[in-house]
Design a protein that fits this description.
- It contains 31 helices and no strands.
- It is an all-alpha fold and about 700 residues long.
- Among the domains are: about 170 residues, no CATH class; about 140 residues, no CATH class; about 90 residues, no CATH class.
- The longest helix is centred in the first third of the chain and has 50 residues.
- The protein is rod-shaped.
Amino acid sequence: MANLVPVDYDPFASGAQPAAPAPKLVPVDHDPFAEAVSPAGDIAQSFGSGLARGAAETVMAPATGAQMLKDGVYGVTDWVENKLRGMLGAEPLSEADIARRNALRDEIDARTDPIGRVVSSAQEAVRGWMTRNLHAPQTTAGEYARTIGEFAPAALSPGSLVRRAATVMVPAVASETAGQMTKGTPFETAARVGGAVVGGIGTALAGARSAPQQIVRKGASGLDSATVQADWTAAKSLMADAEQRGLSLTPVEALNQVSGGRYRNLAKAQRVAESTGGGAQVMDDFMAARPAQVEASGRAAIDALAPRTMDPVQTGTRAQAAAEGAIQDLRGDINAGTRAAYRAAEADPIPAVDFDRIAANPGYQETLRQIRSHPVLGPAFQHLPDNSVGMIDAVTKEMKTKGAAAANSANAGHSGLLSSLYSEGAQDARSSASRTSAPYAQALAEQAARRQGELAPLEAGPVGQIAGTADVTAQRGALFPRNPEAGSSPVVGSAVKQLAARDPDAALGLVRQHAETVFNDATKSLQSGPNQFGGAKFSATLRANPEARDSLRAAVEALPDGKSRWDGFNRYLDILEATGKRLQRGSETAFNGEDIAGMKGGGTIGRAVSSAGTQIPRILSEAYDRYRFGRNTSELANILTSRGALPLFENLLKSAPNAVRSRQIAALLATIGLESRMAGTQPVTEPAKMHP
């Protein structure tokens, strides 16, 4: 039997021949009649078209993201329903069911969200226009160039040139490579989107910081880079000086010391690391060594300030002698300055009428008789007659001494009346002599001026107080009172200078005694154990206020080689003050809630794990939080205490607080537009439909 074959022409027609095969139409995403371009031209034009598409998709990203979210919700809903249907033995949703459901959704959305529908239609129109009019790659290299162009807007994110290039190139190349490997298969779109997601998130994570690192970076937020750089340079110098003295500071303590407390948030973070989670042990070990460090470095600093050469008793007696000597030196200097005037006036006679009145005073008569009969004083004044200015001056000096002795209640012959008689008689005699002799009047005036302007302040000030006692504690109080009067630092400096001029070791010993006594009191152990804040207390006590600081400086700089001594000691006090920039227990314990929550997270990856769309049972969630909190506080503690971590701390401190997040957002924006572009590769007559 003949084998019948179907044909598409009349086989019985005259001269019938098989028809030539009709051309087969295949939908493409480019103009098939366009002139071919060179590979280099294809790459350039493809990159340009990708750049335009990427810019457009970046602008449309918010609306596109919302649409993709809705589509995802709808898809998950349909998937869950199919799973439930399968569990109940019902038929799954057919494609026709889903199509009808999507049509109903579109109808509902058109009524409830008309603006969203308009925006969606506008986006589809823009994508259709780009598909019809932008250059379509003709080579594989061109396809890579177009994809790179689409991701190019991500280069606007902050960061170094290398970082920004990676933000563009890595997800673009990953996406296109995945697309090339699955080209022409149903999996191409998913592969391209997946490649972009993996590449984009991977690049973002490469620059992401852990939760502790983010907290360190956040600590400098709001400060300009020049300020941070200057603060960090000063902080590193302070830490280096501390290390040379055998004392370790955290970078947080050093920063707050040199900046006047600008990095308060970092101090709070350090407090959390000290008191909670896995950081407590690290910080405890670091801080436990501090009392011994302060003890050793403090003793060395005091030795450098003033080495011990005598005990406290010797210091007190020698300081007293030096002070007495300083007062006597000034008295001698005053007398020497007026000696010539006295000698010129001593032989001048007093008129008889005036002398008879002076000589009638019983106190004057008794004192004159004592001088004339004294075995030592008598011969010294035998050349002067009783009515001479020189003799009257000698008698009145003795009368003033007797008046002062009578006024002293400690003396057995104490008498206020007798004191007044001696003092008034002496003053009357001197007044009469000064009216008679001009040289004598000049000498008295000069002496009175210098005694009032120089001697009286010296006797009433620290030198006079030190001269009045050998008790070193009282002497310290005279130089360094707890609340010094404003403007007293020059007086303190002058006092130490005068003591040092007569006995340098006594002056050094007195300053050392003050510093060492304060140190011993400040660093003594507490009931709970060694005092970790003793060094800070020592610094705060010595420099309790600006006047106390200036007085200490004036005293030290008045010592031999004082400027060098002060510079070294004051720098050490700065270091000790930095140890007090650490927050103590009970101070601001309510740490910033956002950062506490961040410490419970695992940075970018940890947050993804803990919010992966599942409802973790409460007990497991809390256990995970505790685990992450311990890990994060431990990491933060190591960043703050390890000298090897200083470069990392510096990098975190100087990095822009929003740099990582911006890179992540940029990568996400590029990824969002990918599915839209893939939808645009469908035939123009059937544009891809997206559910809002």
